[in-house]
UniProtKB/TrEMBL annotation:
It comes from Adineta steineri. It comes from the Eukaryota. PROSITE patterns: FBOX. InterPro entries: F-box_dom, LRR_dom_sf. This is F-box domain-containing protein. Coiled coil: none annotated. Residues 1-49 form the F-box domain.
């Protein structure tokens, strides 16, 4: 049938299947009716500029965005090798984000500009509809700590934000500053390339009381902070790397996550948590746990385990709890430098030039 005979409702639904670039490229200028739909009625534009040619990017920023800024729901900008200088060029065309009044998702990849990041931090309070905010593989070597504090406080102050992915590298300094604001909306948080300690984790939960998912890195080898007991009852999914911490700190932390459904934990510490300890923790404190992945590496690489110690630790994972109830199988991999125990479901990675000297598994 003639495409132009379709009712407006069907055309608007059809538009939802195209991203902003394809939609405008295909239908702009087709006729007056289609143009009226594009610029007056359609309000669900998504633009992923990381996959656009510079020609299309320039065209959209200069010609189209001024007409549809308040109809745009998602923006993704990137300074990758394929789109160098894109973020700076975007802000030269569109200096302010305030016109994106209905923006729900904002993402930056490979951002390198201190000035732009500060400008984004200042503009965030005007993006009240934002639900998703991402900083991926960003690096700001000369950023001031007070500016990062402004950024995190303005993030936590967003009334509808539910998802935040924070991956900003500040060379040797910590870039993620625990906010002083409290977010009641934020539920999913990923903090990459930054190291927290136990007390900072406690403060993070105090300022994010409805957090359901957390991805973070805890390093206790650089400070003497001890664990202060606190409840993390809202947490249902945890993906965490813990370095330099004794099991006497890890276990109490996990005991305070009673509603955990998914746990992915990597531990590089002075000793291992055996199968009996894990079983006791899960049976008595993590009653809702469904998915469990772990990897444990001993930091004291020089002091390798004996065959008897390896056998004893592997045996602790052979009970009916592990084999029959959950079918959570564990393997041990070792050579002259390290010993690692991990769940079999983790992808097997081994980069050495020779086969491991130790390879054992509870999976027959």
């Amino acid at each position: 049938m003639n495409f132009n005979l379709l009712p407006n409702e069907i055309l608007l639904t059809f538009f939802d299947y195209l991203d902003g670039d394809d939609l405008l490229h295909a239908f702009d200028g087709l006729n007056a009716r289609i143009n009226a739909l594009l610029y007056k009625q359609y309000r669900r534009y998504y633009f992923d500029f990381s996959v656009l040619s510079k020609r299309n990017f320039d065209l959209i920023c200069q010609q189209y965005i001024p007409l549809i800024a308040d109809h745009i729901l998602a923006l993704h900008l990137s300074d990758s090798e394929l789109t160098p200088g894109q973020i700076s060029l975007f802000f030269s065309y569109i200096p302010s984000l305030r016109q994106f009044t209905h923006l729900r998702s904002l993402s930056f990849t490979y951002l390198r500009s201190k000035d732009i990041l500060l400008n984004v931090a200042i503009e965030l309070p005007h993006l009240v509809q934002l639900t998703h905010l991402e900083f991926k593989s960003c690096s700001i070597p000369d950023y001031d700590e007070t500016d990062f504090e402004l950024l995190t406080n303005n993030i936590w102050n967003l009334p509808n934000l539910t998802h935040c992915y924070f991956n900003i590298d500040k060379t040797e300094q910590q870039s993620f500053i625990i906010p002083s604001k409290i977010s009641s909306s934020l539920k999913y948080l990923s903090i990459n390339n930054d190291v927290l300690n136990w007390n900072l984790i406690n403060r993070l939960f105090q300022h994010t009381p409805n957090l359901k998912y957390l991805r973070a890195h805890i390093d206790c080898s650089k400070n003497g902070d001890g664990y202060i007991g606190s409840s993390f009852s809202t947490l249902t999914s945890l993906n965490i790397f813990i370095a330099g911490s004794h099991s006497s700190k890890i276990i109490p932390f996990l005991q305070n996550t009673p509603n955990l459904h998914h746990l992915n934990i990597r531990i590089a510490g002075p000793n291992f948590i055996d199968g009996y300890q894990w079983e006791d923790l899960i049976r008595n404190y993590l009653l809702k746990l469904k998915t469990f992945h772990f990897s444990m590496i001993n930091l004291h690489c020089i002091r390798l385990m004996t065959e008897e110690q390896i056998h004893e630790l592997m045996h602790s994972f052979r009970s009916s709890f592990w084999i029959d109830e959950h079918q959570w199988f564990v393997r041990c991999i070792g050579d002259g430098y390290y010993i690692r125990f991990e769940t079999v479901s983790n992808a097997f990675r081994y980069a050495a030039g020779t086969l491991p000297s130790v390879f054992k598994s509870t999976d027959s």
